[in-house]
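Students often ask why we bother encoding 3D structure as a string. The short answer is that it lets us treat folding as translation between two languages. Here is a chain of 136 residues written in the first language.
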Amino acid sequence: MRLNSFWNHLPGVWRFERFLYGQLLQDGLLGVDIQSEFFYKVHENGTYKAQPEQTFFRNFSFRWEDDSINIYGANPKDGYVFLHRINDLQKSHTHLCKADKYIFNLLEMSPEKWSSKIKINGPKKDLELITLYYRQ
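And here it is in the second language, the structure alphabet:
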């Protein structure tokens, strides 16, 4: 599936499961709301599957810019900050957060499901998160 087609299928509600080293870490819902043709507000809320269980939420914005999806994450101090840029040629993106390197990979895309992998390496973190999204 081409990225522009994937972009057009993103709005709506997605159920997700996030795995750390093959074990379920989080599950919840991802809501993608259209703000304009080129801008989506995205809200993720769910549950950490540790004991005791805890809830969480995150806000993002997805922007269609120059045939790419740019992903921005809400940061309480700085507003929305740039995280990742993916396009048809490059479905992987690396950014630094302090001293840790985050490598985002868009693994699969379809109208009914998609998945991503984030590998984090550095002095504070060394882990890999796989997230599976299913149309709600």
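Translate back mentally: Residues 3-135 form a domain with the Lipocalin fold (CATH 2.40.128.120). Keep this in mind for the problem set.
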